[in-house]
Amino acid sequence: MSATMTASGGVPGAAKNISASEALGRRRHRLNTIVRTLCVIATGLGLLFLASILFTLIYRGIGGLSLVVLTTSTLPPGSHGGLLNAIVGSVIQTFLGTLIGTPIGLMVGTYLSEYAQHSKLGDAIRFVSDVLLSAPSILIGLFIFALLVAPFGGFTGIAGCAALAVIVIPIVVRTTEDMLGLIPVALREAAVALGAPKWKAIVQVCYPAARQGIVTGILLAVARVAGETAPLLFTSLGNLNWSLSLGKPMASLPVTIYQYAGSAFEDWVQLAWVGALLITFGVLAINIAARFVLRGGK
């Protein structure tokens, strides 16, 4: 009799627990649906904004893209000039800025990840790098102006390269440190157990394992400096004439776009749109090429 009562008394409790579990499951399902819907909406808005920017660039810039634009230097309004000197100047300054900043950022990021994880010096370097990463680019331009332009009495292409290098460094530092931090400790221990010194374990084990992430950081740095205008206004300034000398003012696409976009002349405004289109698709081409190279190296 007591067993019967216990069984009958236990059934409502079990049913109550099942009902509470089902209610919790339904609540979690609704919450998951809401969050997933919000994520889809946010993704759609991001893609919409990106597509609208690309569409505007193509719509406004493709009409002015021609062989003359790519083979002729900038000329006075109405002279059917092009952007050749600005394109070459941007390529030179972006390449040299990346070439200078990438090794420095790579070594600093490696030091922070492998040698100074819990040291006061590492914390100080990390703090300075983060501040530099968030600093407005115009301040970097003013710094290089005071360091390399004002003392020597003139704007130069090398000053522009230095300004872009300063922008590249903290991006590569942060990416390198984060990517090396994701490498399992077991890989390092295995290399050391085989008799490899620490530097060789980093170069031959950690770098290849983190290669894609590090290259992505370098590409982000290239994309950032390729469109910078403010630092170049204070350093290389710009040049309407053809010049490959790093000791003289040097033209660049961002500065040319800045100068032409607000012009009252229709042909200069059109060239500004063409320049923006060239920068966008140039960075896109670099990213695609790098992805193919990385996949081919596997």
Quaternary state of this entry equals single chain
Outline, from the CA principal axes? globular
Q: Kindly report the name of the CATH homologous superfamily.
A: MetI-like
- The chain-level mean pLDDT equals 90
Poorly predicted regions are 1-8
What's the count of strands? 0
CATH architecture: Orthogonal Bundle
Strand content: under 5%
Biggest β-sheet description: none
The number of helical runs is 12
> What is the total number of structural domains?
1
Kindly state the percentage of residues in helix: over 70%
CATH fold-type name: MetI-like fold
Distance between the termini: 73 Å
* Rg calculated over all Cα atoms: 28 Å
Structure in words:
The protein is mainly α and 298 residues long. The protein has one domain: MetI-like fold (Orthogonal Bundle), CATH 1.10.3720.10. Helix content is 77%, strand content 0%. The chain has twelve helices and no strands. The longest helix is centred in the N-terminal third of the chain and has 60 residues, at 2-61. The chain starts with a helix and ends with a helix. The model is unreliable at 1-8 (pLDDT under 50).
